[in-house]
Predict the structure.
Amino acid sequence: MSQVVDPGADFDPLMYELIVVGCGPAGLAATLFAVRQRMKVAVIGKEIGGQAIHSTHVENYLGFEGIAGEGLVERFEKQLAEQFIEFIRDEVAKIEYGQGCYELETTQGAFIRSRTVIFPPA
């Protein structure tokens, strides 16, 4: 997916428009909606599906009367594979805001910047 950039505008190719912390169902849904709006998105998390991958049976999930967690996550992966999303398999150690953006540091020492961050409550 290409991005049109105004040559006179401040543009940072390493800056994301959105970083989603967590690869569970809510984080992945937010990611999918953002990507469909043509945003540059990264997702940070250990494994796609979050806790759902470890569930033997998921009930009350919209569109399903019941489904195995592994099957649900397989559907997530299939749908997301069709999109341009950068998955960062790590955890966030620190989030700071300054100079108009958020800077996230991962447990492996990477620094990632974004204008917006979605993260689960502590």
Notes: Strands lie at 15-16, 18-21, 41-45, 58-59, 66-67, 86-89, 92-98, 101-106, 111-114, 117-118.
